[in-house]
Amino acid sequence: MLPRFEVVRRSRPVDLVAPHSVRVDAASGGVVPMASAAPYVAATTDVRGDAALALHLSGHRLGASVEDGSVSLRVTGPVGARELRSRRFHRADAPTQLGITLTGTHLTAWSREHGEWVARSRHDLRDAVDTRDEAALADLRVELPEGGGLAGGFGQLGLRDVRFVTEDDGRPLRDGAALWLSATSAGPGFFDTAHTSVWRWDPTSLDLTHSADLFFRRPDRPGVFGDHAVHVVRVDGRWLVATSTWGDFEAPTTRAGRRTPAGLRVTLAETGADLLRGTHVLDTRELPLPTDGLDSIATWDPHLVRRDGEWLVGFVSARRFFDFHPAVAGGPTLDDLRLLGAAADRRATEGTTLVQVDGGTLVLASDGRDSRRGQRARFPVFDLTMADVGVLDAPYPTNLPWPSVAHVDGTWLLATFNGRTAGGGLLGYGTHGDLVVMRER
What we know:
Blueprint: E1 5-11, E2 15-26, E3 30-33, E4 40-46, E5 51-57, E6 60-67, E7 70-77, E8 80-84, E9 97-103, E10 106-113, E11 116-124, H1 134-138, E12 141-144, E13 149-156, E14 159-164, E15 166-167, E16 174-175, E17 178-185, E18 195-201, E19 208-217, E20 228-235, E21 238-244, E22 254-255, E23 258-259, E24 266-271, E25 278-283, E26 285-286, E27 298-307, E28 310-320, E29 323-333, E30 336-342, E31 349-357, E32 360-367, E33 380-382, E34 388-391, E35 404-408, E36 411-417, E37 435-440
Parallel strand pairs: 15-20, 19-25
Antiparallel strand pairs: 1-37, 2-13, 3-12, 4-9, 4-13, 5-6, 5-12, 6-7, 7-8, 9-10, 10-11, 14-17, 16-17, 17-18, 18-19, 20-21, 21-24, 22-23, 24-26, 27-28, 28-29, 29-30, 31-32, 32-33, 33-34, 35-36, 36-37
């Protein structure tokens, strides 16, 4: 069985402009091209009195400014201009920098105060601009003030949905002594502001370096999406990326007493590109997951392992939002899977993870705090039929942390996350979390 774990590090990288994705670093102002593969970009400038920044996209000027300590957005387009200022959160406290971000369809103005970024105004552009249009993104420009500034791909407010990048047999992919992690890079708000990132991680020093960002095209609609909650797998010299389509997820509506999905399911990308570095937009197809008898309206959290010529896929199935449980499928190919088991007694359990232990395969998951009594705030362990076989002996952080484990150089490691938020009071749920690293005791 797996050993007892203890926390050895909590870390929280916060960057509006991702360090590996800087495209403009100017000492003077002006409007300059900044083509982007995806609608996840940011710009910052120093504040010396008043300051302003803007993005130019599809005939619209998307501006942020700070004037007399008040931060606001101004969206100008063919039908006029609109100024957007939060009644409660617009006032900055001694700002040293101004920032603007576009994350999916959400435009946000930021001020840096006492060493931290604070969101001061936010606006959803979906009714004004098609932010996911690739041709428009190729013509994106950034407007910097006289003192210049920095611009490039959006970074993250926190990291969640952490998984080890693996070989197809489940072993963690190595880069010398280092490992690789995929994560959901939290944006300024709900799931549709986040995207997928890749990180190089040293298991000895525990240093973490942002190295890549992944975005996705859907098989059924145009545009580029920040889909996330993924598993990145190296297979025969190429990559598979199994992805949850959270990138445009909205709060579901109720019809006839039943929560309806927003097309949430799992897709699959295959590529020979170097996904460990740079920015990539990947074409996807549907990954058909069997949900026979589960009364399923949505699936997410894929995890893939190939063993003895067969594929195993762990995932989550939802009866409604938010009532969900883990499941496992298997088959000779990813297009020919059958349901092996489901823990249908759960109602708030996700992060399904397959792990090889002592020559066998176990299934780990995360019982959230909204679970039934006796199934709360813990990491359950199942066999491949999804019968309970135990509980992982590890501290359980806040939110719904995934139990991503790896056996490295004779030691078991666990990488997960918590629910600590960032970015200030304007932003709602979705800005979490810290990377929480555990090691066997």
